[in-house]
Amino acid sequence: MVVLSKQLAVNGDRLMQSIDRLAKIGRQPNGDICRLAFSPEDLQARYLVQQWMIEAGMTVRTDAAGNLIGRYEGTDPDAPALATGSHIDTVPSGGPFDGALGVLGGIEVVRTLKENNLRLRHPIEVIVFTDEESSMIGGQAIAGTVLLDQPERYLPKINQPIESCLEKIGGDWSQLPSARRTRADIAAFVELHVEQGCVLERKAQAIGVVQGVVGMQRHLITIHGQPNHAGTTPMDMRQDALIAAAKVILSVQAIALEQPSQPVATVGYLTVAPNAMNIVPGTRRAIGSICATCRRWCWSKCWRS
Questions:
Q1: Fewer CB within 10 Å, N- or C-terminus of the chain?
Q2: Nearest in space to 175 (alpha carbons), one of 133, 146, 155
């Protein structure tokens, strides 16, 4: 057991400096950050974070899923790791804290331990999960849930095959099962993350503990109508795909609101064809996501609407 003779605190100013430095990679003219997984910006960020891990006294490796793993050894070589971390890839218009806070916060903890000549009994691992904002290949590989015979399901946002994407960061699709971790490897995992909603702000709370995680299911829906001239086709003779889609969207919202378990449901992407102001929409495709607990009933009820 390690007994601390004094209360330790991380260097908050240094942590913010690290966050600001990482945020410069992929920063857009409007201030947003675009650091898509496997992009040149992502590779540059991975290299920078790896250097910080090494400077903090960690050994660094990349597993078959491209997860970047920094390890600060403990006093017991047989103890499973205490793991933390998050991701450093972003959505197309991201912010400086999403994901980065969890990674850099973990590194700052290790820096503090090293500066005070301290090691815990358990080793500490800081994990940068690969492509968390799209394919989630890193987290799924660690959990052992990747469908190895369906690589096309894991197409990153840069629209390149996952096999070649992993290769460029030191991963290997053919060896993906080796990335799986078990309780024998990891004793516990905790992630520091910026709140992406408004609950804490509304309650005037600085920090909270997550009590549950939404189980997400995503569905692609195609609605077929009949494209026709908007000026000459009577309203009662139209088969407008976008009108039908609007009813689906409203039904998804209504179903989520009426459930006591408070699930969330979102239709976040759509394309309309022919997509012209003077043509009745003939096709509409949408990607929606619903809580896994709703999957049995949500879409069937929406279609009945």
A1: N
A2: 146
